[in-house]
């Protein structure tokens, strides 16, 4: 019955409307295996503190094992009167171990320190799972970059042709951003690697329990230093939501480009049939739905982060029931990424690039003008003058409807005495690319090195 956790002080049970509002089993059930692991660890420290004899410990542990098996097989599920996963599992334990043994487990713990611990355990597992899926996207980008090493494309700023770059250089730019997201999860894990179990409701326990032992049992390096902080802080959830949102935003930038690149106007890529959809009315359509859903879901993950931050804002210490609202946003973030990322890495890995089209457009829009200016600087001309001269070349070409490389030696001399025939060396895409050969540049040799660096980071992550 609903009185089971706090019957003593109350004359009657909660109103149906309160029970309905309070209930969280429909979303916190996924914490059940972690709750049982926490209970096992707690039973052992109760035994260590002399509060549970060896026999009772054995019965308790075997009942918890049975309960876990029953949760897994769904022989045990939540009942209408269970408020949350913790209540339900206590009921399940008592059903299996009897009220005398089962009723001893709650000593020295509260759902406040329980949930704060289980939530960390769940998120640490999923941080690892999501990171692995992000690394699959990185692998797909690295694979494409490796396959197309040497292919030039128009690099853009403001969406306008800017300078030619290697396609691999562009793809690896996305890979680096995602590798940083993976690093963020690793950094986050170091901060989240502490267990609040033993904090009780807020003040700690008087029963001689050993929070460090529970922490180690549950895979944490240490117990939290402050029981109030341990039970009331949720910055680890907010940070998880931020990293999720950042990852989705990084993915959305690849998504947006894929959508553009797959248009007739760009013609840079063709989507694989298995990662595109058709139209129910237009027979010719092949739609980039994976990329569009990725773009859309980035907004949803930003919403998860903002919603959680709004819940946490100005919340006084210590635990407040508002904190029950911390779970759905981050569970949504986890579920969204775990369904999105496999589709996204599949889409990227199966993109067919069209090198002829990319290379044809690479030098267009006078994207070699900067190369003229920098060539002049290498001849000792001040950049201010060099910029003007290169600009004059563009104007001349625009008026005559020709390209920069169509200018003859005479044309060039007329524009500026500094423009000797040597400038032709950089008036080609390969010349331009090769000249950008400092670390981080788009020269083929540099990009080949960068590719190995990114691949190695992905392997080690
Ligand atoms: N279900 C709650 C939560 O997720 C934990 C229970 C704490 N409830 C309480 N009344 N102290 O935050």
From TrEMBL:
EC number: 4.3.2.1
Pfam families: ASL_C2 (PF14698), Lyase_1 (PF00206)
GO molecular function, one term: argininosuccinate lyase activity
Protein name: Argininosuccinate lyase
The species this protein was found in: Leekyejoonella antrihumi
Pathway linked to the protein: Amino-acid biosynthesis; L-arginine biosynthesis; L-arginine from L-ornithine and carbamoyl phosphate: step 3/3
Superkingdom: Bacteria
Catalyzed reactions per annotation: 2-(N(omega)-L-arginino)succinate = fumarate + L-arginine
Any GO BP: L-arginine biosynthetic process via ornithine
């Amino acid at each position: 019955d609903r009185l089971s956790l706090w019957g003593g002080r109350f004359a009657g049970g909660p109103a149906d409307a309160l029970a309905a509002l309070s209930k969280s089993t429909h979303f916190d059930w996924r914490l059940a295996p972690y709750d049982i692991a926490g209970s096992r660890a707690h039973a052992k420290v109760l035994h260590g503190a002399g509060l549970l004899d060896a026999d009772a410990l054995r019965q308790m542990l075997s009942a918890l094992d049975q309960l876990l098996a029953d949760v897994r097989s769904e022989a045990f599920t939540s009942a209408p009167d269970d408020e949350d996963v913790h209540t339900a599992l206590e009921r399940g334990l008592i059903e299996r171990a009897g009220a005398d043994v089962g009723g001893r487990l709650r000593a020295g713990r509260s759902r406040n320190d329980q949930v704060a611990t289980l939530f960390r355990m769940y998120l640490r597992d999923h941080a690892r799972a999501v990171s692995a899926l992000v690394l699959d996207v990185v692998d797909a980008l690295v694979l494409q970059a490796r396959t197309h090493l040497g292919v030039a494309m128009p690099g853009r700023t403001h969406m306008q042709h800017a300078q030619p770059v290697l396609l691999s250089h562009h793809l690896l730019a996305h890979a680096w951003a995602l590798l940083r997201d993976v690093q963020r999860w690793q950094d986050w894990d170091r901060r989240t690697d502490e267990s609040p179990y033993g904090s009780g409701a807020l003040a700690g326990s008087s029963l001689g329990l050993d929070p460090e032992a529970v922490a180690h049992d549950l895979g944490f390096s240490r117990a939290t230093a402050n029981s109030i902080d341990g039970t009331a802080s949720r910055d680890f959830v907010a940070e998880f939501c931020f990293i999720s949102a950042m990852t989705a935003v990084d993915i959305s930038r690849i998504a947006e480009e894929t959508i553009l690149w797959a248009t007739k106007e760009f013609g840079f890529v063709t989507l694989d049939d298995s990662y595109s959809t058709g139209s129910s009315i237009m027979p010719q359509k092949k739609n980039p739905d994976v990329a569009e859903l990725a773009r859309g879901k980035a907004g949803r993950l930003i919403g998860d982060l903002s919603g959680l931050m709004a819940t946490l804002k100005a919340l006084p210490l210590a635990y407040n029931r508002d904190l029950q609202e911390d779970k759905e946003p981050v569970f949504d973030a986890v579920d969204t990424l775990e369904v999105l990322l496999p589709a996204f890495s599949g889409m990227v890995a199966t993109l067919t690039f069209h090198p002829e089209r990319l290379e044809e457009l690479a030098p267009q829009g006078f994207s070699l003008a900067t190369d003229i200016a920098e060539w002049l600087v290498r001849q000792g001309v001040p950049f201010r003058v060099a910029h003007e001269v290169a600009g004059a070349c563009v104007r001349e070409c625009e008026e005559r409807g020709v390209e920069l490389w169509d200018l003859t030696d005479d044309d060039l001399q007329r524009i500026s005495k500094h423009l000797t025939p040597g400038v032709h060396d950089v008036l080609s895409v390969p010349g331009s690319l090769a000249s950008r050969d400092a670390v981080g540049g788009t020269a083929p040799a540099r990009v080949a090195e960068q590719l190995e660096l990114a691949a190695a980071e992905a392997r080690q992550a």
